[in-house]
Structures are given as structure tokens and as C-alpha cells.
Amino acid sequence: MQTPASPPGPKPPRRWHFGLIWPVLRHPRRALPAIASSLQPIWLTPLVVLSALALVQVLAAVPMRQAAAASTMVDLPMDYQYLTPEQQAQFQSSLSASGGPMFTTVFPALAALGRVWLGWLVLAAILHLVLTILGARATMGSVLNRVGWASLPFGLQSAVRTLAVVVSRKLISAPGLSGFAPAGDGLGATLAAQILGQIDVFLIWFVVLLMLSLRAHDDPGASKAWTAVLITLLVALLLIALPGVLVAQLGGLTIVRPFLF
After folding, report:
1. 245 near 251, Cβ under 8 Å?
2. Residues 223/156, Cβ–Cβ less than 8 Å
3. What is the pTM of this model?
4. Residue 15 within a domain
5. Which one of 148, 153, 214, 224 counts the least CB within 10 Å of its CB?
6. Is 195 inside any structural domain?
7. Are 149 and 210 spatial neighbours (Cβ–Cβ below 8 Å)?
8. How far is Cα 119 from Cα 240, in angstroms, rounded to an integer?
9. Residue 39 belongs to what domain range?
10. Has residue 258 been placed in a domain?
11. What is the pLDDT of residues 113-155, one digit of tens each?
């Protein structure tokens, strides 16, 4: 007597969902409802794609960073001639290190990955907090999925910037709308330049996809969705601009060496 075959167990969730990339970009109204309603963490695929494209952009700009470091004129200290040969050698080695792989490849790559992964986490956390305050029912896992897939346009942004760098053989000095920032070196002008530099068609595309994903499942309503997205976007732009503002402000400081040293 044969024992009845046991029913097949549940299939394990898929890790990769590359087949959703094109539908999300081409037909978001059809693809985003499945992403918004998914109970599984399916954010890994877009994050890996964004990371890969960001690293390609960094690698494409390495020759230009090396050339910029080599052509930068550095003023020697006033007491350079009084330094010992060992101190002069240390100073020269520090100058040559700025064109080395750590500054032209490793640090930019880490910064690019930080923008992708930390940016995704911070955006999702802010958006979930704002939605919760507004009374929406979206879970943190659902928000992580939505922000991850809505960020796919930033991958196209990296691809376009990579192509621009390769063709022009120049680093992108004024991204987005930074050319419309007011002239000057003050705090307001610097902050405006940093914020406007993040605004382009890909950011608008991201906002549209994020709005569609919020309305696709557990719809909080148009007014709440727009309020949540705009507050999240404003906070995120300010957080992204702060490091650039700090670097610009600190770069203008003059360091005076004490007489005893």
C-alpha cells in the first residue's frame, strides 16, 4: 500500500526581481501595486542595481580626478625652506596622495555607496514617520520596498552622468539646477547651490514613482500622500546639502599656526 504523497511545501521567496525593473520604469501603474502590496523584502534588487551603476560612474571619473589632482597648484608653506628634509618629504608625499587611488577611487566609491544605501534608509525612515503622523497604515517594510523601487531613476541618472563624463572627459561641476543658484560665497548661496544641484528630471521621476506607489496600496489619499512625499523630499534635500555646505564653509577658513610650533 502506497502512502499518499505529501503536498509540496511553500516555495521560498525569490531573492532577485530583475524582471520588475523595466515594468516599473515603463509601466509603473501596473508594476507598483505588486511591489507596494508585497509582504516580502524585495528592495535588494534595485539597491544592487543602483550601487553597481554608481560604482561605474565613480570608475569612469577616476582619470579625470587624477588629472585634476595633478594640475592643482598648491602653495608651499612660508617656512617650507626651514623644514627638515624628512618634513619636506612628508609634505610632498601628502600632496601626491591626493591623486592616489584612495582619494580618486576608494573614498568616492564609499561615498557613492553611502548615498545609495544610507539615502534609501533615511528616505524610508522619514517617509514612514510622516505617514504615521498623518494616520496612514503603511508598514516600514512596505515603505522600504516602495522607496527602493521608486529610486530606479537615479540609476539612469548615474548612467547618463557616466556617459557625459566619458564623452566630455570632464568632471560634472554643476549638476542639476545648481547653475541657477545665486552668486556669492555666503551660507545662503552655498545652501541654495547644494539643494538645486540635487534637483533634476530624475528627482521628479522619483517623486512621481513614489507617489504612484503610495497610492497603489493602502492609499492614504492624495493630500496625505503629497504632503508626506514633499516633507520627506524637503528634509532629505537639506540633509544631503549639509555636508557640502560644511565643506564649503570650512574650506574658507584660514588656519594660523602658533609661534611656538
Report:
1. no
2. no
3. 0.82
4. no
5. 224
6. yes
7. no
8. 9
9. 22-70+83-251
10. no
11. 999 999 999 999 999 999 999 988 889 999 999 999 999 999 9
